[in-house]
Amino acid sequence: MSKLTDIKQRISQMDGGEFQEFCDAYLSKLGYKNIHSLGIKSGTHKTTKGIPDTYFTEVDGKYILVMYTTQVTGDVFEKITNDINDCFTESKTGLKNTDISEIVYCHTSSNIGAGDDKKLHTLCEDKGVLFNIYGIDRIAQEIYAKYHSLANDFLSITFSTEQVCTDNEFTQRYNANALAAALDTEFHFRKNEIEDILWRVFCVKYLQPLFLIWIFCNEICPLTNRRKCGGISELFSK
Predict the structure, then answer these.
(1) H/E stretch holding 4
(2) Could you read off the pLDDT of 143-185 as tens digits, one per residue?
(3) Which residues, including other chains, have CB under 8 Å from residue 214's CB and lie 6 or more apart?
(4) Is there a contact between 165 and 149 (Cβ–Cβ < 8 Å)?
(5) Which residues, including other chains, have CB under 8 Å from residue 95's CB and lie 6 or more apart?
(6) pTM over 0.70
(7) Where in the chain are the domains?
(8) What 3-state DSSP class applies to 191?
């Protein structure tokens, strides 16, 4: 069995609470910030009733609402449609449609056709809300390709020795050592030093190569044949 198939199988075996916790972590990896998980009892895998299951807050005050389902039998499309409509029901969310910037839906079904997918997107877009849907195939592909730590933490699937990881994963692992100084410590009252570092990085990355080009055009080329290279002004004029 391939690892990709194994990932799909493990995800499909999750109950509602496990799937929500897993997807909360997955969406955080994708870059969603300021998570608030409502559909699961803190510290357990027990689901709770409420709309939405999870939400993220944005810097502009808007909300990203997230719904989950592990339903794979019956009319899954109808289930998703009803959940989306619930997100647009102010009495259930306490939010007006204008407060919502995006709705995210994660599910474990493989039976959402292209036509149904289009209808779901249209349902949200007609209200001026972005819609993103993550089915088991899409989730599994990204776990397989990018997020091996989630496969290890939630699915008990190990890919490697974990010597290659994202910057955030490296920071988390390093900080887990109680004897080590945290890598994500914020710098305070060091504005001048930070600006100096950024300037030095800029010089190394940009100005040094330009200096070498200048040396080549104005010192080396004339020694060979001026007609082939008229100096730095000719180079940049091209």
Answers:
(1) helix 3-12
(2) 998 898 899 999 998 876 556 666 777 777 777 777 777 777 7
(3) 232
(4) yes
(5) 63, 65
(6) no
(7) 3-175, 192-237
(8) helix
CA distances from 167 to 105, 139, 170, 183 (A): 27, 21, 5, 11
The token pair at 120 is 């779901």
Q: Are strands 54-57 and 35-37 parallel, antiparallel or unpaired?
A: antiparallel
Q: Cα–Cα distance between 169 and 147 in angstroms, integer?
A: 10
Rounded to an integer, what distance in angstroms lies between the CA atom of residue 127 and that of residue 20? Answer: 26
| Torsional sign, CA 196, 201, 204, 210 | negative
Distances (CA, A) of 70 to 125, 188, 194: 25, 46, 48
The pair of structure tokens assigned to 202 is 């800029």
SS3 128: coil
Owner of token pair 């959940």? 83
For 3-175, which CATH class? alpha beta
Peptide bond just before 209 cis, omega within 30 deg: no
